[in-house]
Specification:
The protein is 66% helix and 0% strand.
């Protein structure tokens, strides 16, 4: 106890210093942390170190080359052809025209022009289609594309029943390119236009020009044979009908086969003849003159009527004969020969209309 009390005076200065130190803030320097050293992986002897694989997405990005920019011309014509394949014809025409406006010198311009012509044709605008094909033919003279376009223009005129214009185009095609793949069909078409004008000899000449190996040789041979029999079609002589009508009113119509007209002509002319005779017998010359003039008019009308009846009967007989030819030789349609390059656009229908799909009463 006595020793402890003796230490108290020595501890008083220490306690005072501790109280002062407690009131002064102490700044502590941050400890310097040494980086952790990862021990190197020990690779066994004789075994190469394997590289660390990259994440799948990152590896694909590194391997893939930069994407090439899209060709706007190709996109435009592909879109136009897809519209044509979907029968969206007017939008397809707009896209084809846009392609020709922006890329007129592109090698695919023929595809665009063919697409425009085909769209017009499928839409029933045959005149516009023919004009489009003619532009192709003018742009490619002497080339297979130009000859095919010339043929398709003729086909459009043929379907539009403009047979004279179609025949001229077929003849131009045969003169410019005698070896065209569709020359046999051109001869076949020309023969039908000549049949419509009753030029049977010229029609047979064109039919005989079809090649023996052609798909049109068999129908052309049958048609030529039937044309050789056209002279055997029953025909009435207009002169004989007029002569008979002059000798006996009504007999000319009877010769043609019109029994009703024959009986009416006989009764009317007989009535005027009897009336004129009776008026003259009763010395009523005024009435006799009037009745005679009217009777003369009916008499002459009877003669001209018989002549016209014979001509109409001949025309109808020929129409019936040629109509039978149309019905007999219209189907089946011969197979079309292959088109020369380039191939038609996607969705393009095979060129060439069904043969003589229109009946004769409409055609001629």
């Amino acid at each position: 106890m006595t020793h402890a009390l003796a230490l108290v005076p020595a501890l008083v200065p220490v306690l005072a210093l501790a109280q002062v130190a407690a009131q002064v803030p102490v700044q502590v320097e941050p400890a310097q942390v040494e980086p952790t050293q990862v021990p190197a992986q020990v690779v066994p002897a004789g075994r190469a170190e394997q590289p660390v694989p990259a994440p799948p997405g990152e590896e694909a990005d590194r391997a893939a080359p930069a994407a090439a920019p899209e060709d706007p011309a190709r996109l435009t014509i592909d879109h136009a052809e897809s519209l044509l394949a979907e029968s969206d014809l007017y939008r397809a025409i707009g896209e084809f025209k846009r392609f020709l406006h922006h890329w007129p010198a592109d090698p695919r311009s023929f595809r665009a022009m063919q697409g425009i012509a085909e769209a017009y044709r499928r839409g029933g605008k045959l005149a516009l289609a023919a004009a489009a094909y003619q532009r192709i033919a003018a742009r490619a003279p002497g080339l297979p594309e130009g000859g095919e376009a010339q043929f398709q223009a003729a086909e459009c005129f043929y379907q539009a029943r403009q047979y004279a214009v179609a025949e001229a185009h077929y003849r131009t095609l045969l003169e410019d390119d005698p070896g065209h793949p569709r020359r046999d069909l051109a001869h076949y078409r020309i023969s039908w236009t000549l049949i419509g004008r009753e030029q049977y000899a010229e029609a047979r000449r064109h039919l005989e020009l079809t090649a023996a190996t052609s798909a049109y040789h068999e129908p052309a041979s049958r048609l030529a044979e039937r044309l050789g029999q056209a002279g055997q079609v029953r025909r009435r002589s207009p002169w004989l009908a007029g002569l008979l009508a002059g000798l006996l009113p009504g007999s000319g119509h009877l010769y043609v086969g019109r029994l009703g007209d024959a009986g009416l002509a006989l009764l009317v002319n007989a009535a005027f003849a009897v009336g004129t005779w009776e008026a003259a017998a009763h010395e009523n010359y005024t009435a006799a003159t009037l009745l005679g003039l009217f009777g003369l008019g009916f008499y002459l009308g009877n003669i001209f009527g018989a002549v016209n009846a014979a001509e109409r009967d001949n025309e109808l007989s020929l129409r019936r004969y040629v109509s039978d030819l149309v019905l007999e030789l219209e189907s089946p349609q011969p197979a079309q020969p292959p088109l020369p390059p380039p191939a038609p656009a996607a969705g393009q229908a095979a060129p060439g209309a069904p043969l003589l799909g229109l009946r004769l009463g409409v055609r001629w």
